[in-house]
Design brief:
There is one protein chain. With about 375 residues, the chain is α/β, with parallel strands linked by helices. It contains twelve helices and twelve strands. The chain folds into two domains: about 70 residues; about 260 residues, TIM Barrel (Alpha-Beta Barrel). Helix 9 links the parallel strand 10 and strand 11. Helix 4 crosses helix 5 and helix 6 packs parallel to helix 7. The N and C termini lie far apart (about 45 Å). About 5% of the residues have low confidence.
């Protein structure tokens, strides 16, 4: 049985004379004999493994544990556990792959929906109105504009590829005619080959695929155009995704999904990739909260992380509020995601996010 492990947090360099100058927490679901071995190995180098009561008696087959290490200790354990049994070799691989991250100012991805049924009316624009909103978002600080023609809200019904193309074509054509691709990067929010090809041929450079490169033809088109691809995780499809979603462990399940899709991307020669855990796409509230709180785990893939929780229903589940009143909750979630190393934030409210992120950056850069 392989150890299931994820990094729960990384603290900033503390510059204080304490045991862990760069402290990392690694939560693991281990076989009990493995936990006992790992605890002794951790203690021998000054690290610690917090385990459940009576773990040493091996009453349970598996237990939850939290490994507390600094970066030097992590590297030592990644070598020591390679020769240990009970799944610790896999844990050693995860420890070796982990990459500490530094919080930086994220890129803001502004949302434009060229349809009439996206869950937030404030994101719906057509024609010249869409063009005006795009220019406004760029002026407010957006580095990327994400254009889509099909709603992916829970319970939504897909439309034909032809209908999707009819919706996005006027906006894509206006963007190209106005030369806006020289002022920002543009992303096509689609998993349909036709609309994706149309946008890429007219200056778009990112494919935001909520199916995570499920369609081989999308892989071929992205590769042929040298596009960057956002691989997003979604359980099932938009119509059914919120009907009793279930995971063995949401972190490790999504980790395996990313591993599989990154391998597929490599087979097609797609190297420029972002990862998106898919907040609200086949997730319960506790899944969404865990993914944001522990987003830093996914840095071990060495890819930029995108997060998009803008005005989503998880906010309403914590503090009841209509979609129009969820900006404060959105900012709280996205600030935590940035703290966990998110590189790109997909949102509806560019100006508010830019201000919040700049203030957070100023606080991080204040030394005293």
């Amino acid at each position: 049985v392989l150890a299931q492990c994820f990094f729960a947090a990384s603290l900033q360099d503390l510059t204080l004379p304490i045991k862990a100058v760069f402290a990392e927490l690694c939560q693991a679901y281990l076989r009990t004999p493995a936990a006992n071995i790992l605890k002794q190995d951790a203690l021998s180098i000054g690290a610690e493994l917090a385990v459940e009561k009576d773990t040493i008696l091996c009453k349970d087959e598996k237990i939850d544990a939290v490994l507390i290490v600094n970066d030097k200790q992590r590297k030592i354990l990644s070598r020591k556990e390679r020769v240990q049994p009970f799944g610790l070799k896999r844990l050693a691989e995860v420890l070796a792959e982990h990459q500490p991250f530094k919080t930086t100012m994220p890129a803001i991805m502004g949302v434009i929906n060229a349809n009439e049924d996206s869950f937030y009316a404030g994101s719906r624009f057509r024609g010249e109105a869409a063009l005006d909103q795009i220019v406004r978002m760029i002026e407010e600080g957006a580095e990327i504009i994400d254009v889509g023609g099909v709603s992916s809200r829970p319970g939504s019904i897909p439309v034909s590829e032809e209908e999707e193309l009819l919706r996005i074509r006027p906006v894509v054509d206006l963007i190209a005619a106005e030369g806006l691709t020289a002022k920002a990067r543009f992303s096509i929010d689609s998993y349909a080959p036709g609309p994706i090809a149309y946008a890429l041929e007219r200056g778009f450079s990112i494919v935001n695929d909520i199916t995570g490169l499920k369609n081989d033809r999308v892989c071929e088109i992205a590769a042929a155009n040298g596009a960057e691809v956002v691989i997003m995780h979604m359980q099932n499809n938009p119509t059914t995704m919120q009907i009793n979603p279930e995971y063995a462990h949401v972190i490790t399940d999504i980790d395996r999904f990313f591993e599989e899709r990154l391998e597929k991307a490599a087979r097609y020669g797609i190297d420029d990739l972002m990862l998106d855990v898919g907040i609200g796409f086949g997730k319960l509230l506790e899944d969404n909260l865990m993914l944001i709180k522990h987003l830093g785990h996914f840095h071990h893939f060495g890819k930029p992380l995108l997060i998009g929780a803008s005005r989503k229903s998880m906010i309403d589940m914590v503090v009841p509020a209509p979609v129009e009143e969820r900006l404060p909750g959105t900012l709280a979630l996205h600030l935590k995601a940035v703290e966990e190393g998110a590189s790109v934030i997909r949102c509806h409210d560019v100006k508010a996010h830019y201000q919040a992120f700049k203030i957070a950056q100023a606080l991080r850069e204040t030394l005293i």
